[in-house]
Design brief:
The chain is α/β, with parallel strands linked by helices and 236 residues long. It contains 8 helices and 11 strands. The strands form 2 sheets. The protein has a 9-stranded mixed sheet, sandwiched between helices. Helix 5 packs parallel to helix 7 (197-205).
């Protein structure tokens, strides 16, 4: 039996690069697709939001002379590219996935609405929600929190390269220790960078718990869904 009935999975664009310096690493995206399909086979309804940092990040565009709004729009389009790639990888491996976009982009994907996503779940589709919130100045972290609350997910799963939340960046500080569970309040007071503050506040205020886990270890997503203690749970 799965622990969760409906989840919102947040994937970072950077993680799709793998060991590459840019773009989408085929091995990584196929591994993600396999994990997602295996989890969906347990009857879990899965919504997915992917970042676009492997292709273009709005804030980095500003430093190169782009207008912030234009930069963020380019970043939103990068998330659509990643979403289509993940949809294709899921389908090639026998799964069913639909792409929904925050702004009109047919035939690339259907315009997002909660009703459409819930209907897709009933039909057995994995729902990939692309284009961020559709507005500049909001990150894909915030988009994932917003969509998670909207579709009434049981939990927001933040898939990263790190196996949880630590007292400091474990890739930089070898003395960093991992939290198994932490409250939103404690994480805020300790200034732990789990998600941006807007996303974090939205999850806290709407009682949507977050699990931060290592998505790059094959099998972790299914283990988490089935109730194993994977990663770090952040809750009220």
């Amino acid at each position: 039996m799965s622990k969760y009935k409906r989840v919102l999975l947040k994937l970072s664009g950077e993680s799709l690069m793998g060991d590459d310096s840019y773009g989408i690493n085929t091995q990584i995206i196929n591994s993600y697709a396999k994990q997602i399909n295996e989890t969906a086979e347990h009857g879990v309804e899965i919504g997915i939001v992917i970042g676009g940092g492997n292709i273009f990040r709005g804030l980095s565009g500003v430093s190169k002379g782009f207008d912030r709004v234009k930069g963020d729009q380019m970043g939103m389009l990068a998330t659509v590219i990643n979403s289509i790639a993940l949809q294709s990888a899921i389908e090639v491996q026998g799964g069913k996935a639909k792409v929904f976009t925050a702004t009109k982009m047919e035939p690339v994907g259907e315009l997002y609405s909660k009703a459409k996503v819930l209907d897709a779940f009933k039909q057995g589709y994995i729902s990939i929600i692309a284009g961020g919130t559709g507005n500049p100045f909001f990150t894909t972290d915030t988009a994932s929190a917003l969509r998670g609350v909207e579709i009434e997910a049981d939990v927001l799963l933040k898939g990263t390269r790190v196996d949880g939340v630590y007292t400091a960046d474990p890739e930089k500080d070898k003395t960093a220790t991992k939290f198994d569970t932490i409250t939103f309040k404690e994480a805020y007071e300790k200034r732990l960078k789990i998600m941006d503050l807007t996303a974090f506040t939205m999850c806290s205020e709407n009682n949507l718990p977050i699990v931060v886990f290592d998505m790059n270890t094959p099998g972790n997503l299914k283990k988490l869904i089935l109730g194993e203690k994977i990663g770090t749970l952040v809750k009220n």
